[in-house]
Design a protein that fits this description.
By secondary structure, this protein is an all-alpha fold. The protein is built from 8 helices and no strands. The longest helix has 36 residues. It holds the Pfam family Rce1-like. This is ABC superfamily ATP binding cassette transporter permease subunit.
Length: 235
């Protein structure tokens, strides 16, 4: 594969990256209609996540390789900033939800849906499996929404500003299935997308975004692990 030129926008790669979320949403929704077995649905969800990440890395993996040495130099400082950024992401989402009158909406949006609410051993194990997708999402989504659909346009101020809006809105819309198509419920995640874009603009390092997003989603993983052990000791 031809090496990625980080100094210019590659339209083919950009379109390819932009197609990953809508295609996965459509295919995922279709796969969910093929079975009523929740274990199969979790497997489908994981497989789609792995495929999405693989395609994103094939298109823009060079960006991660280029930025990693710079991120690693001050890794503890950067990780602390990422944790702080993740905490502020919850604040941003909470403030927007409050402003929209959605304060009572469950924070646990992401890929796992309501799976993490289970309490029996079988259900807790299912939730643990479903938590795999949020571990992969930060890599895929930051490559797509923050690099391909935003920061790579940084040589053109007008284009960068336009893609700031486009990428933020698109990031909110990718949670379509999580909120059953409720556009208003997705607005807080559009705000989160804007916040992540600002982090990339300030840091100019994709790993800062990946780490921040990872810590944000890791709350769900912790919830799944805690519920698993609670169910384990109660059975």
């Amino acid at each position: 594969m031809k090496e990625l030129n980080l100094d210019r926008v590659n339209l083919g790669r950009t379109v390819g990256a932009a197609l990953i979320p809508p295609v996965s949403l459509v295919v995922g929704a279709w796969l969910m209609t093929l079975t009523d077995n929740v274990w199969n649905k979790v497997v489908f969800m994981i497989v789609i996540s792995v495929i999405n990440l693989s395609v994103a890395l094939a298109l823009y993996g060079r960006v991660l390789k280029t930025d990693w040495p710079k991120f690693r130099v001050h890794i503890w400082r950067n990780l602390l900033l990422a944790i702080s950024g993740a905490a502020l992401t919850y604040v941003v989402i909470g403030l927007v939800r409050s402003g929209l009158g959605l304060a009572g909406l469950n924070f646990g949006m992401a890929q796992t849906g309501n799976v993490l609410a289970f309490s029996t051993m079988e259900q807790a194990t299912l939730g643990l499996g479903a938590a795999i997708s949020p571990l992969l999402a930060p890599f895929t989504e930051e490559i797509i929404f923050r690099h391909a659909l935003f920061f790579q346009f940084n040589r053109n101020k007008v284009g960068l500003c336009a893609m700031f809006v486009v990428s933020s809105v698109a990031f909110g819309l990718v949670h379509w299935n999580n909120f059953h198509g409720d556009i208003v419920a997705m607005v807080p995640y559009m705000a989160a997308g804007a916040w992540f874009a600002l982090i990339y603009f300030w840091s100019k390092n994709i790993w800062q975004n990946i780490a921040t997003h990872f810590f944000f989603d890791f709350v769900q993983v912790i919830s799944a692990v805690v519920l698993f052990f609670v169910a384990l000791f109660n059975n």
